[in-house]
Hints:
The chain is α+β, with helices and mostly antiparallel strands. Helices cover 32% and strands 9% of the residues. The chain is built from two helices and two strands; from the N terminus they run E-H-E-H. Strands 1-2 form a two-stranded antiparallel sheet.
Amino acid sequence: MQVSCSAHGCTNRRQRESNIHFFSFILKNAERNQLWINAAVRKGFIPTKNSAICSAYLIASDSKSI
Protein backbone atom coordinates (compact mmCIF):
# COMPACT_ATOMS: atom_id res chain seq x y z
CA MET A 1 0.00 0.00 0.00
CA GLN A 2 1.37 3.39 -1.01
CA VAL A 3 1.54 5.81 1.91
CA SER A 4 1.35 9.52 1.18
CA CYS A 5 1.16 12.58 3.39
CA SER A 6 -2.33 13.94 4.10
CA ALA A 7 -1.13 17.52 4.58
CA HIS A 8 -2.37 20.09 2.08
CA GLY A 9 0.13 20.55 -0.75
CA CYS A 10 2.56 17.92 0.54
CA THR A 11 3.67 15.43 -2.11
CA ASN A 12 5.85 13.20 0.09
CA ARG A 13 5.41 9.47 -0.41
CA ARG A 14 6.93 6.60 1.57
CA GLN A 15 10.10 5.40 -0.14
CA ARG A 16 12.76 2.92 0.91
CA GLU A 17 15.72 5.34 0.82
CA SER A 18 14.24 8.36 2.58
CA ASN A 19 14.76 10.24 5.82
CA ILE A 20 11.08 11.18 5.92
CA HIS A 21 8.93 9.17 8.32
CA PHE A 22 5.17 8.77 8.24
CA PHE A 23 2.86 8.69 11.24
CA SER A 24 -0.74 7.56 11.47
CA PHE A 25 -3.19 9.97 13.03
CA ILE A 26 -3.84 9.19 16.69
CA LEU A 27 -7.57 8.65 16.48
CA LYS A 28 -7.96 7.53 20.10
CA ASN A 29 -6.36 10.72 21.50
CA ALA A 30 -8.74 13.53 20.53
CA GLU A 31 -6.45 16.37 21.66
CA ARG A 32 -3.36 15.14 19.78
CA ASN A 33 -5.48 14.15 16.78
CA GLN A 34 -6.88 17.69 16.53
CA LEU A 35 -3.36 19.17 16.62
CA TRP A 36 -2.34 16.95 13.70
CA ILE A 37 -5.54 17.77 11.79
CA ASN A 38 -4.69 21.46 12.23
CA ALA A 39 -1.14 20.75 10.97
CA ALA A 40 -2.59 19.13 7.83
CA VAL A 41 -4.23 22.49 6.92
CA ARG A 42 -7.12 20.88 5.03
CA LYS A 43 -10.59 22.33 5.42
CA GLY A 44 -13.07 19.70 6.61
CA PHE A 45 -10.41 16.96 6.80
CA ILE A 46 -11.39 13.92 8.87
CA PRO A 47 -8.56 11.37 9.16
CA THR A 48 -9.19 7.65 8.92
CA LYS A 49 -7.09 4.73 10.17
CA ASN A 50 -5.24 4.86 6.82
CA SER A 51 -4.41 8.59 6.96
CA ALA A 52 -0.82 9.59 7.65
CA ILE A 53 1.24 12.75 7.94
CA CYS A 54 4.96 13.00 7.22
CA SER A 55 7.66 14.06 9.64
CA ALA A 56 8.80 16.88 7.33
CA TYR A 57 5.38 18.51 7.49
CA LEU A 58 4.91 17.97 11.24
CA ILE A 59 8.29 19.58 11.95
CA ALA A 60 7.55 22.50 9.60
CA SER A 61 4.12 23.14 11.16
CA ASP A 62 5.54 22.83 14.70
CA SER A 63 8.25 25.41 14.06
CA LYS A 64 5.62 27.89 12.79
CA SER A 65 3.77 27.72 16.12
CA ILE A 66 6.85 28.57 18.21
